[in-house]
Amino acid sequence: MKYNTIPKSSVAGRIVPFAGTVASTLMIIASMGMAQSKESDGKWELLPKNIGASLDLGHISKGVVENELEFYGITRTGAFTSIGAIYDSRLELRIGMGGQFWFAASNEVDAVRRLVRYGSGAGEAHGIYSFGDPSEPSAKLQIGLFPIKYSPSHNLGEYLFRSGTYPGYLVTGGWSYLDASSYLAQGARFSLPTFGNKVTHEFSVLMERDLSPLNDFSPGYNLTVKPNPFLEFGGGVVWSHGLSTKPSRLSSKDRENAYSKNSSMPVYGAEKCLNGNGICETGRETLPVGHPDNPYPIPFPVIHYDTTAQAKVTLNDWQRCESGDCSDIGYYTFRGFKVMARATVDFGALIESEAIPTGTFRAYGEVALLGVENQPFFYDKKDERLPMTLGVDLPTFGLLNRLSAEVEYNKSRFYNTIYAVNQNQYPVPLGHNDLSGNETGGYGYTGAVDFEDDWKWSVLAIRKLTEGLNIRAQIANDHMRHPNFWGVMSDRPATRTLDHWYYVFRLDFGF
Predict the structure, then answer these.
(1) pTM of this prediction exceeds 0.85
(2) Any residues with CB less than 8 A from the CB of 194 and at least 6 apart, and which?
(3) Are 208 and 218 in contact (CB under 8 A)?
(4) Residue 427 within any structural domain of the chain
(5) Distance CA 237, CA 415 (A)
(6) Number of C-beta neighbours around residue 82 at 10 A
(7) Residue 423 lies in a domain
């Protein structure tokens, strides 16, 4: 069972958050199938039911839970069931439900907060209609709640859908720790295969249902090209919050969301920088050994100061705006374009050896740009919102069914946090307070102290014990959040610096 979402409220309150929408869309797509087969002898054919359960046992061996560094146990027990049916060989309906017993990631001494918790939810509730010949459809339309996955990745990557734009936060896992790189989407997707299924176009309109601002629709396009059995590449674009139910909330006309066009600095926090010389600290960084500005044989921290009195320029522009002239003031926005490019080489398909089956020996990579357009200060460098992921599935010659390793690099001055989005609902990576509790906004932000969090990694191993029974293991330093007592995921991942990591073993069965 894969619940790859970040809950806004309690788990129990999110059983089927959009049940009415899902039900109505399934009725619409079902009526399409009825109309197509009105004069035929079409009938419903039940698909085999899927029932299963899993037990996760693991630890955050080194990481942060509720701002404390500790060895923290992570245990979950889950169960799921799904059912489906096909009408006239062209309309498929699927519904899946599941639940989990889990413990809150909490350091509180209150015994109640350490009790086992339970939550249930929908893993899928969607319909797929096939156009043309059912044995080789000319196109497919999918509507409802369904998982989306476009690459072979097992943990890292897949950021076209499971990431922010402004700010560009990254998400992995969710309510499933292992092998959970798909995105649980709500909306519609239209697939159009061309050139003998070698080129596939996917058009989607998905609802933003995880983080504020909610209920907007994000149109997207995904291209997959497979010229031969061993090579696949593709790309995609998503217009994040492109169709908004309330456009005004995408770019609030508030002081906290404003910036000066002349100084290219945010308005909030400018007053904290003013002193006798109009100079303030604007950021810090650690220069590596060998850097032209580092004369020492060790990494050297440097402080950057505002020597051009940007704070005074910013405040003057804002004061004119408050008087009615806002020509020199701009506002940050959630809306923007995300783009992605990827490639996969399947060496197993290229070698054509029985010892290395197709899909067991392959290399894959992805690069995504989270926000094509720059915005001042927070988003003025494209290379700081450019996560790059590389992965490889390695052959084990029967020892394992899957062995995968992945690595990611994402350079950024800012923490991978969802605090400002959830708490303040502004499209900035910092809230009114920085992570040290100082009300300084962008001016006093000293950069991500744990600068090593640019690198992430993950290793996955799967072994089939017998039919329907598997054991899985994952060791990773990724973007996994953990829930508190109310089922709300933490603002930041538990593994933050390069030496942080966790491990999880899973025993699962299904039939």
Answers:
(1) no
(2) 200, 201
(3) yes
(4) no
(5) 24
(6) 20
(7) no
